[in-house]
């Protein structure tokens, strides 16, 4: 469509409300085809999708979602409940989720819990009132009320970022416990004699507690007879400044520790930078490990040894499962363990 055609279309419609029938006439297709492209573009040919989308752009058509939702009894939305909006690592998972869902015609609406089970109840109840077609949850620990509400809703649910033998519906994630147990095994292979777990175990952050449990299990297996050491704070936020504070506490309580295993890369990064300011040689005097493989991990000097988890892929795979369920297709599996990878860099 050239510029002249576009100007003629704009003059024709002006400020009047553009209908789906108008889009169909401009695209040279039926109104049913326009509706199908809007609802399930993956089920249409690429040529048809492009013609309809060009017609939508040229006519500046805005779909009346409220009317279509009433007609189809579907909202074409997926509710995503995450601990924090500001955390980049959850944003990566949301990006993967949204990328796949948008291609299938679904929009993501987000609620955040700030690591509070009580707030998760309120968020889930509020979002259910908006009638989403499915739910995506970070974590597998929920109150009975949350589980009951989602089961009664009878819509697809995918949990992520953890592992459980009893998911609400479907699960895409990894074992935080197994990841930290592997970190302890790595510490033993590298010859570290006195590893200490360091973390901020905020109320409701079940994944950090699972990581501490994995540390304890790994210590029992690989360091028999050595009393495990944990340095935890209940209310410190996940910031680099908290990592600096935790480093000071760990050094005061266990000055002979030769490796600090942090529950998060942000905390580990703050500790590593504090070591540099304090003249503590890393890893010669003190080794540091993190969790998550944040972008900062590879940019530090020395680079941060950490546990990498498939943040984007978790969202993508969860979205693919949800789309198949929403199309009444049988998913390949009820649970999908994406695993983790220990990334060795200079800090340990």
From TrEMBL:
InterPro entries on file: HTH_LacI, LacI/GalR-like_sensor, Lambda_DNA-bd_dom_sf, Peripla_BP_I
Keywords noted in UniProt: DNA-binding, Transcription, Transcription regulation
Protein's name in the database: Transcriptional regulator, LacI family
UniProt xrefs under Pfam families: LacI, Peripla_BP_3
Highest taxon of the lineage: Bacteria
SMART domains named in the record: HTH_LACI (SM00354)
PANTHER family in the record: LACI-RELATED TRANSCRIPTIONAL REPRESSOR, TRANSCRIPTIONAL REGULATOR
Domain HTH lacI-type: 18-72
Gene Ontology MF terms in the entry: DNA-binding transcription factor activity; transcription cis-regulatory region binding
């Amino acid at each position: 469509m050239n510029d002249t055609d576009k100007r003629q279309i704009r003059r024709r419609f002006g400020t009047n409300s553009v209908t789906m029938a108008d889009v169909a006439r401009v695209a040279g297709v039926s109104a049913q085809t326009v509706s199908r492209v809007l609802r399930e573009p993956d089920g249409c040919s690429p040529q048809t999708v492009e013609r309809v989308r060009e017609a939508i752009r040229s006519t500046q058509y805005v779909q009346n979602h409220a009317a279509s939702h009433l007609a189809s009894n579907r909202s074409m939305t997926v509710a995503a409940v995450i601990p924090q909006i500001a955390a980049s690592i959850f944003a990566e998972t949301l990006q993967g989720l949204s990328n796949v869902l948008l291609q299938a015609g679904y929009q993501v609406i987000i609620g955040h819990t700030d690591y509070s089970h009580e707030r998760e109840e309120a968020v889930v109840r509020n979002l259910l009132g908006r009638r989403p077609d499915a739910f995506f949850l970070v974590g597998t620990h929920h109150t009975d009320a949350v589980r009951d509400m989602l089961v009664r809703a009878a819509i697809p649910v995918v949990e992520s970022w953890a592992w459980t033998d009893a998911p609400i519906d479907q699960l895409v994630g990894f074992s935080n416990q197994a990841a930290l147990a592997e970190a302890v095994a790595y510490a033993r292979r590298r010859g570290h004699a006195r590893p200490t777990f360091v973390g901020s175990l905020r109320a409701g952050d079940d994944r950090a507690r699972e990581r501490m449990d994995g540390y304890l299990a790994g210590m029992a297996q690989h360091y028999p007879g050595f009393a495990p050491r944990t340095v935890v704070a209940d209310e410190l936020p996940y910031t680099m400044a908290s990592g600096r504070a935790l480093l000071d506490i760990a050094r005061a309580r266990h000055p002979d520790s030769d490796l600090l295993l942090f529950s998060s890369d942000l905390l580990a990064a703050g500790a590593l930078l504090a070591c540099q300011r304090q003249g503590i040689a890393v890893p010669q005097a003190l080794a540091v490990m993190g969790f998550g493989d944040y972008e900062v991990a590879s940019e530090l000097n020395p680079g941060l040894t950490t546990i990498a988890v498939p943040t984007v892929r978790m969202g993508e795979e969860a979205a693919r499962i949800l789309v198949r369920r929403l199309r009444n297709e049988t998913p390949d599996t009820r649970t999908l363990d994406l695993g983790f990878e220990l990334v060795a860099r200079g800090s340990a």
